[in-house]
Design brief:
With 106 residues, this protein is mainly α. Helix content is 50%, strand content 0%. It contains four helices and no strands. α1 runs parallel beside α4 and α2 packs across α3. The termini are far apart.
């Protein structure tokens, strides 16, 4: 399931990022203002949109490993979350490609 998601992220949104969902995202003040004021997605795939915006504005992105400990008891519905993420990836691609959503980097 995760490999399929990463394949779609690579095709629709951001190339060259191995894990868009996990880890920290650090931005300069200028980059953060641009990325977060232009962000539309407020669900699971918000990471993909902010990385898409960063890539579009030529903001450097570097992956850094983070030690992660899984905590038992998640209430995530994998099917519902997967469908929402797929919808959001398609929305990101279509809305920016057609100009419905616009973002100009200063």
């Amino acid at each position: 399931l995760m490999y399929g998601f990463h394949f779609l992220v690579n095709i629709l949104c951001v190339k060259g990022i191995n894990d868009t969902q996990c880890g920290f995202k650090l931005f300069s003040r200028k980059a953060a203002q641009y990325v977060f004021t232009n962000q539309h997605i407020q669900r699971w795939a918000f990471d993909c949109e902010i990385l898409f915006l960063a890539e579009k504005a030529n903001i450097p992105v570097k992956e850094e490993a983070v030690k992660w400990k899984e905590i038992e008891g998640t209430k995530l519905n994998v099917v519902t979350a997967s469908l929402q993420m797929l919808r959001d990836l398609v929305l990101i691609r279509i809305c920016y490609a057609t100009g419905i959503w616009k973002a100009e980097y200063p």
